[in-house]
Amino acid sequence: DAKTTQPPSMDCAEGRAANLPCNHSTISGNEYVYWYRQIHSQGPQYIIHGLKNNETNEMASLIITEDRKSSTLILPHATLRDTAVYYCIVRVVQTGANNLFFGTGTRLTVIP
Amino acid sequence: GAGVSQSPSNKVTEKGKDVELRCDPISGHTALYWYRQSLGQGLEFLIYFQGNSAPDKSGLPSDRFSAERTGGSVSTLTIQRTQQEDSAVYLCASSFMEGYEQYFGPGTRLTVT
C-alpha cells in the first residue's frame, strides 16, 4: 500500500470547518483513499473513502486532487466530539487485500 | 444495528497465564480482522479471516498467539504463556467482504502483570 503523509496535529475552532490534508504521491491507479478516526480509548471508526471523485456522506467530505496525489478530509462543522486522531490510508480494494496500515495520523483538537 | 462487540473489555492476567479474547462481528460480515495497539502506538495487524478460507496469520508475533473463527462468525484470539510485552489493546474489526471498509469493536485492554 502507498505511503501517506499527514501533519501530526491540528487545531480547529468549534463550529468551523476542519480541513485535514493527506499526501499520497505514490498512489497507484487501483488504490483507494480511506479515512478513519480514533477517539481516545475507542476503536477506530470508518469515516469515508474514495477513488477519484469527491465523496460526501453524513460525517464528512473527501476531496481528492485530479492527479490523486493528495486529498483533504473536511468536517464541515467541527464539534468537540470530533477531537480524535484521523488516519488517511491508501489501499487496494480487491481479493486478498486484508489488513489496514495505520500510520501516525493527525491529532485534531477542536477548541471551544 | 449492532456493531462489533468484544469481551472482556478489560483483562488483567499474570505473566505465564493463557488468555482468550472474544470478538462478535457484525452479522453478515464475512471478513474478520484482529489488530493490537500498544500505548501511544499505531495499529499492528495480527490475523485475518475471510469466509471459510485459511486465515492470513502473517501478523502473529509468535507461536504463542493463535485465533480461530467458528462457524464463520465469532472469533477467539488466544495468547498462551502471556508476557508483559503482550500488554496492549486488542481490536477486532469486521467487513462485509475482504477489501471493504472495516468496522471496529471497542477493544479488549489486556494487562499482563
Provide keyphrases for this structure.
heterodimer, A: 112 residues, mainly beta, five-stranded mixed beta sheet, four-stranded antiparallel beta sheet, 0% helix, globular, B: 113 residues, six-stranded mixed beta sheet, 47% strand
What is shown here, in short?
The complex is a heterodimer of chains A (112) and B (113). Chain A has strands at residues 9-13, 18-23, 31-38, 45-50, 55-56, 61-64, 70-75, 84-92, 106-111. With 112 residues, chain A is mainly beta.
Class based on secondary structure composition and strand pairing of chain A: mainly beta
Radius of gyration from the alpha-carbon trace of chain B, in angstroms: 13 Å
Shape of chain B: globular
In terms of per-residue confidence, which ranges of chain A show pLDDT below 50 for 5 or more consecutive residues?
none
What oligomeric assembly is this protein in?
A: heterodimer
As a whole number of angstroms, the C-alpha radius of gyration of chain A is 13 Å
Strand content of chain A: over 45%
**What percentage of residues of chain A falls in helices of 4 or more residues?**
under 10%
Head-to-tail CA distance between termini of chain B = 37 Å
Alpha-beta content class of chain B? mainly beta
Order of helices and strands of chain B: EEEEEEEEEE
